[in-house]
Amino acid sequence: MHGHNGLDHKSMLDLYKSFVLPVLTYGIEIFTPNSTLIKQLDLFQRKTIKQILSLPNNAADPCVLILTGLLPIEALYHLKILNFFNNICGQKESSIERQIVVRQLSVKSGKSSSWINCVLPLLVKYDLGDVDDYLQNPLNKSQWRLKVHKTVVNYWKEYIDRIARTYSSLKYMNIQYSPGKFHPLIQVGCSSALEVTRLPTRFRLLTGTYVLQVNRCRFNQYAISAVCPNCKVEDETVEHFLLHCSALEQVRAPVMCRIWNLLESMDLTKQVTSPALLAQTLIDWSIIVPNHPSYRDKMLMLEFHIRRLFFHLHTTRYRLYKELSGN
Fold first, then answer.
1. Which of 65, 198, 248, 323 has its CA 20 to 30 A from that of 147?
2. pLDDT score recorded for residue 2
3. Rounded to whole angstroms, how far apart are CA atoms 128 and 79?
4. Cα dist. 220→57, 121, 129, 224 in Å?
5. pLDDT, tens digit, 9 for 90 and up, residues 74-123
6. What are φ and ψ of residue 235, in 5° steps?
7. What DSSP assignment string belongs to 170-224?
8. Confidence band, pLDDT 50/70/90 cuts, at residue 5
9. How many Å apart are CA 23 and CA 223, to the nearest integer?
10. Domain residues of the chain, as ranges?
11. Distance (Å, rounded) from C-alpha 175 to C-alpha 284?
């Protein structure tokens, strides 16, 4: 999938959206799957995206949606079944589908497993009004998108934004969820096959799944030291790894100089007032860099150097680990 002969992450995500997702949700608005099946489909989507982005399974689930702009499978199911309902409402009264819906409304109880009883709770959930209003006054496509589609998407945007704030692993990440749009860091493609191999380290630092000595210490119930084994000065935190470890300074300094010059050229260094803010800027520069076309070229160059920095720090760190273990 990845590597020197593999596709970059953006191309893989486009392929998933174009070929996998339509098959995954095909006909879902008609056979109305139960909650267990919806959860299984959503689990498949999360695991697939994590594999595409070279993330471990323990990566926070909201980061999958934030990075890709995908909606949860449950949200897609709700949109598809509501769209299908509106299409039926727009048909002539003599149509079979409309007659079936009208009959189900008059005959079926609220406890039955009829199709219309899958629609009614969604109208209540999203506060979309009464079912009879749509049957008597069906909306055209533009009205439907303005009212219903926008309401459902905004509901899930607020939900993902809210739960993302509860994950400490995402503290360095811009967790603003934009359905239908890639995260700014995903929008930056790869200029070469070599750059594809730098992405796993980049995404793991972004999502808080890159394992440092403080993580090993916590996982082992503090049975091992959290101090950086390379410089032996302080705990190996994200900030220490990116900015302070003296053992990595030789590979860090030249690239950091280029990154700082780019930030200065965008007049953003005034916002980086502490090492913690600098670490956060390196991990996710979209927090301070305006998403404006005039910054496009500099954003591409900034992301290129940050990927390069993270990859060199990662490879040098593990080479030093190997030398220490060999001694």
1. 65
2. 53
3. 12
4. 19, 46, 53, 7
5. 999 999 999 999 999 999 989 999 999 999 888 877 677 889 999 999 99
6. -60, 140
7. GTTS-----TTS--HHHHS--SSHHHHTTHHHHHHHHTT----HHHHHHHTTT-S
8. low
9. 48
10. 1-188, 211-326
11. 10
